[in-house]
Amino acid sequence: MLALLSASASARDIYTCDGPGGAKVFSQTPCGKNAKAAPMHELQTVGDSPAVREASEEAAKERDAAAKAASEAASKAPSTPATPPPPEAYRCIVPNGEVFYRHAPCPESVEVVTTTWVGNTPISSTRYAPVQSVGVSRNTACAAIRKPDKRFGQGRDESYDLFARREHRDPCGK
Q1: Domain range holding 22?
Q2: Could you give the number of structural domains in the chain?
Q3: pTM for this model (two decimals)
């Protein structure tokens, strides 16, 4: 008879049985002769409930939409350019027209002496002028420093003495 009862139980039947000491016991098979049994047909687990399924599907749709939006935003956003390397040398420009070259960054300002003539008497004044810095290649700076032509500001070029050149500390190499 027990075989008949177990055969009639479907795979989704779950039985609550009163076990020893009154404890509730869940079983896929009918309870024994002396135990009280109450079959629970088509019991849904939390994961099988329609509300959980709908919430899960909704969450999946939201995740997919967010991922798609992020992907589209990333493809439309301009790519961040890599930080350019620092210049090898600098062209320094003073508002009075002086241009000089350095291998290190230009100073923020330079001392400028202005001479005005009052009759036959020169009057000199000293002030500090801002310097504009423009990055240039090492070759451009070295060519301008070596150039024999006199350029207004050439006296401010960064140059190295014979000892520094012999010790190979001159960035221009000669």
Answers
A1: 2-40
A2: 2
A3: 0.48
Q: Is 60 inside any structural domain?
A: no
30-65 confidence digits (pLDDT tens): 777 655 656 665 455 555 667 667 767 777 777 787
C-alpha 11: how far from chain center: 55
Angle of CA points 7, 13, 16, to nearest 5° = 110
Cβ atoms of residues 162 and 174 within 8 Å: no
For 2-31, write each residue's pLDDT tens digit: 444 444 444 556 777 777 777 777 777 777
Structure tokens at 77: 């956003």
Half-sphere exposure of 113 (CA within 13 A, CB side): 5
Among the listed residues 131, 144, 112, the one whose alpha carbon sits nearest the alpha carbon of residue 159: 144
